[in-house]
Each structure stands twice: as C-alpha cells, then as structure tokens.
C-alpha cells in the first residue's frame, strides 16, 4: 500500500469576548490555511470563546452549543468550500445539565 502524505494546518487565534467575531476570524484563518496548502486544519480548543476551563463556573455554561449548532453549520460549509478536513473543538451542551468538550 502506498503511503499518502497530506499537509496539516494548526491555527492560533486571538480570541475575544465577541463569539460571532471569533467564528468569523476562525473562518478566515481556515480559508487562509487552505490557500497555503493545508488539507487538514485544526482549530484551537474552545475556539469560539475565551478559555475558561481553569475552574468550573456554572455561569459560563451558556457558552455551550448544541451539535448540530453554530460550529457544525458554519464549518461544514467552509470545509466543503475549501476542500479541507477540519478539526473543530466545541463546548457542547448535550442535554440539560450535560456538557462535554467535544470534537467535530
């Protein structure tokens, strides 16, 4: 079997308090990485909001999203547009009181 090689892009993003701006910035970074030859692109953990996992704070649970949700909808389209595979970490709300750090 022939070995296949592919290019991986690892994104570093400046994350702020504006969730929508964070998503827009991530989309632009994915598109830029794709134009530079990345075929598999990995976003940073909890890319959509500032990192808050040093301690459990129930007040921050409203940052969680469902699957499907914002991240899956946006990045499914971006992956199709760019012809890339994306690794997108999300803070997932699976059910009332059930939260996960998930990868889609």
The CATH architecture can be named as 4-Layer Sandwich
Along the chain, the helix and strand elements come as EHEHEEE
The termini sit apart by 29 Å
Rg measurement, Å:
15 Å
Number of domains: 1
Q: What's the total helix number?
A: 2
Number of strands: 5
Named CATH topology: Nitrilase/N-carbamoyl-D-aminoacid amidohydrolase
CATH homology-level superfamily: Carbon-nitrogen hydrolase
Characterize the largest beta sheet: strand count, sense, and whether it forms a barrel. 3 strands, parallel
Report the principal-axis shape: elongated
- Class derived from helix and strand content: alpha/beta
Residue-averaged pLDDT: 83
Helical residue percent band: 25-40%
Quick structural overview:
The protein is of the alpha/beta class. Helices cover 29% and strands 21% of the residues. The model has no long low-confidence stretch (mean pLDDT 83).
Descriptive overview:
It is a single chain. This protein has helices at 19-35, 70-82, and strands at 8-10, 40-42, 85-87, 89-95, 98-103. It is an alpha/beta fold and 104 residues long. The strands form two sheets. A three-stranded parallel beta sheet has the order 1-2-3. Strands 4-5 form a two-stranded antiparallel sheet. β1, α1 (19-35) and β2 form a beta-alpha-beta unit. The mean pLDDT is 83.
């Amino acid at each position: 079997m022939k070995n296949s090689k592919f290019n991986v892009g690892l994104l570093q993003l400046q994350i702020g308090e504006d969730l929508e701006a964070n998503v827009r910035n991530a989309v632009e970074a994915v598109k830029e990485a794709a134009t530079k030859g990345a075929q598999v692109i990995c976003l940073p953990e909890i890319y959509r909001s500032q990192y808050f996992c040093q301690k459990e704070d129930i007040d921050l649970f409203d940052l969680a999203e469902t699957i499907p949700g914002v991240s899956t909808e946006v990045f499914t389209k971006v992956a199709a547009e760019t012809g890339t595979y994306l690794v997108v970490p999300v803070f997932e709300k699976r059910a009332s009181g059930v939260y996960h750090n998930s990868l889609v």
